Amino acid sequence: MKGKILSILRRKKEIVSGEDLSFDLGISRVSVWKHIRKLRELGYDIEATSGGYCFVSSPDALFPWEFPERKGKIHFFQETESTMDKARELSRKDCPDFTVVVAETQNRGRGRLKRTWLSEKGGLYFTVVLRPDIPPIFSFRVNFAASLVLAKLLRKMFSIEAGVKWPNDILVNDCKISGMLSEMEAEGEIVSFINIGIGLNVNNNPTPKEQRATSLKQLLGHAVGRREILAGFLDGLEKTLESNSPGHNLDHIGLDHIIGEWKEYTVTLGRMVKIVTTSETFHGKAIDVDENGALVIETEDGAIQKVVYGDCFH
């Protein structure tokens, strides 16, 4: 109902009487007043006059009603421990494809190898539940597709040189602006779900605690809207996955091109790197990413080594 009220007020661009809202929405004028009072508490600037209500402006909010075409699939929390944890719960309860869990802040946001992801107000923190019809062995392609979609979106929206760092961070000017984490569960030979968790520094300032990090606000010199970023990412990822959907034919699993396109945007290949896994640390030159998503390293002694999972430091 709040979304419907906002839609009417935004469309009219003038004072709308409580009586007209009541009639259009099929609810009492008292209910109209209660919904508008709640919207104002949430940060919406709606003027109440003797003749009715007038929409002035909205906060940079991520409420489900701000995404009309997706509102039934978006779960918003002012504060949560981790959007990944919430998404896992929903996934195991058979939530639909492209269900999204988004939070204003996280208390226990995390990155790869159990590292902490700072989740202060102003950033964009969300997890999207995906149910691609693919074997588990090819799930890595979805991760590469997600990071590629986000990098291309940031370039298009803000004219910044966003590049992908293996396996799926986003860097601008060699500073980290986004991190990504994924979880996958399977039933037999088919993926049950892949959850992609993303933390994007938008209007927050990560540098006091992370010197090699940046945000869109720091890069552009002004705050930007997070709604447009989230909507653009979801639309772009959905289009990418749908256009490469293999259906039920496991002889063609889709996203065959994704590694090649990802390499066009990478800032990792050709550089000296340090690789940290759960069991070892080593150095070398990143020379390729193979068809399975593994980073190919030429170590200091000239040996070739492939890394499937770990952290990469330039």
Name given to the CATH homologous superfamily of the largest domain: Bira Bifunctional Protein, Domain 2
The biggest sheet, with number of strands, parallel, antiparallel or mixed sense and barrel status, is:
7 strands, mixed
The second-level CATH architecture of the largest domain is 2-Layer Sandwich
Unreliable residue runs: 247-253
Please sum up the structure shown.
The protein has 3 domains: 2-57, Arc Repressor Mutant, subunit A, CATH 1.10.10; 64-262, BirA Bifunctional Protein, domain 2 (2-Layer Sandwich), CATH 3.30.930; 269-313, Roll (SH3 type barrels), CATH 2.30.30.100. Helices cover 29% and strands 29% of the residues.
Q: Could you explain the architecture of this structure?
A:
The chain is an alpha+beta fold and 314 residues long. It folds into three domains: 2-57, Arc Repressor Mutant, subunit A, CATH 1.10.10; 64-262, Bira Bifunctional Protein, Domain 2 (BirA Bifunctional Protein, domain 2, 2-Layer Sandwich), CATH 3.30.930.10; 269-313, SH3 type barrels. Helix content is 29%, strand content 29%. The chain is built from eight helices and 14 strands. The chain has helices spanning 2-12, 18-25, 29-41, 83-91, 140-158, 216-220, 226-243, 258-264, and strands spanning 45-49, 52-57, 74-80, 99-106, 124-130, 162-165, 169-172, 175-187, 190-200, 272-276, 281-289, 295-299, 304-307, 311-313. The strands form three sheets. Strands 3-4-5-9-8-7-6 form a seven-stranded mixed β-sheet, sandwiched between helices. A five-stranded antiparallel β-sheet has the order 13-12-11-10-14, with no helix packed on it. A two-stranded antiparallel ribbon has the order 1-2. β6 and β7 form a beta hairpin. α2 (18-25) crosses α3. The longest helix is centred in the middle third of the chain and has 19 residues, at 140-158. The radius of gyration is 22 Å and the shape is elongated. The termini are far apart. 36% of the residues are buried. The model is unreliable at 247-253 (pLDDT under 50).
